[in-house]
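Whether sequence alone determines local backbone shape is best considered at the level of individual chains. When preparing material for the folding task, we compiled for one chain both its residues and its backbone structure tokens. The sequence in question and its structure tokens are set out directly beneath this paragraph.
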Amino acid sequence: MGNRKLDLVIRAYSRGAKITSSRCCWNKFAMSVAWYTSDPRHDSFVPKQNGCNGGPFLYSVKTKGKLQNGGSDDERPKLLPSFHDADGFKKMKYRRIGCTDMIVSTVSIGGSGFGNVYGDMNEATATETLHKSLKNGLNYIDTAPWYGQGKSETYLGKALKGIPREAYIISTKVCRYEPEVQKMFDFSSTRILQSAEESLSRLNLPYVDLLQIHDVEFAPSVDMIVNESLPALQKLKDAGKCRYIGITGYPIGVLKEVVKKSHVKIDTVLSYCHLSLNDSTLLSELDFFHQHNLPVINASPIGMGLLCNAGPPEWHPARDEIKTACRKAVEYCNSKGVDITKLAIHHSISCEEVPTTLTSITTPAMLDANLSTIYDGLTADELEVKQYIIKTFFDPLKVKTWEGVELQQYHENLRQYESLLT
């Protein structure tokens, strides 16, 4: 360990700076102090892991009573005075996505709502809300061809016209497309290359920041993902069509298998419905992804509608006991005058090991609720209700996921379709 770098750490402690880290990352910090560099402007430290400035393990540094995620102005996007609402932007909280240069708001904009996945949206209201979201510093948008079969991407292509490109980071996906079972998935290289061009056309963009394989568990095999799908994404990255490569899926075990086998550099993993009030399975799996220098983007903090007053859509794959527990939790929150969606968002963004959480924001009420959660956190009463519903309704669940349900139904529907052809 270099004496200068050790001295920097010692001086930080002597000045009263408290280096805080996630449970799973503390040992890495202890073993790799020599990798730390200082930012004298803020008395802060950012770890370097395997040559990544900021790396996937961002520690927060408390200095003079302030918590600074990332520790310096370099860990915040640039304020655009002619576009941003300065007050809202300054209050927004950001984290870096792993080894990338993508510094994103802790709550981000999921694009499924723009594809009418959860019911018809009012386009004018959604556009007003999107613009206000971006002006207040929410800066990451995630979409996919699957969301409304191109509707979400087409909508964003129109709604983002005139918005400074540096005001947002955007990702989309490939491999999942149509509702008809025989057209739903295509993990071939040819279709991926074509799909990426179609998405860029709908979005009216020359490139996206992140391009992801959508729901890897539905591929014919993990080997196809590794040997054909991911190499196709690498071609697109080499051609300047995307800056980073990611994978998404529901079963965490399949995501891990792809990571272990891939010879293409994967920059991000997106997991959904596993960091929520009713299911925090992701927390026990973060060590694996951190060991592979992979950040995990979280999505669906309200469990695709389970944790809201409207309840889940008809197509929701959760088991009945999960739906019942969630409904009882919603009813209890309502009896206490507490918004369960706010509790759910707070639960997800409280995990500092996860850079951002994606959620649909298509109305001013949704945006205001999210901003309030980011800025103010929970009251003592809300925190008490949150703890109660977890202990009373969710901890007793023996099975917290619906892993395998959708996959089994998909293969059954595919078999039925193929049998009609014979």
Summary: The two ends are 69 Å apart (CA to CA). Residues 222-238 form the longest helix (17 residues).
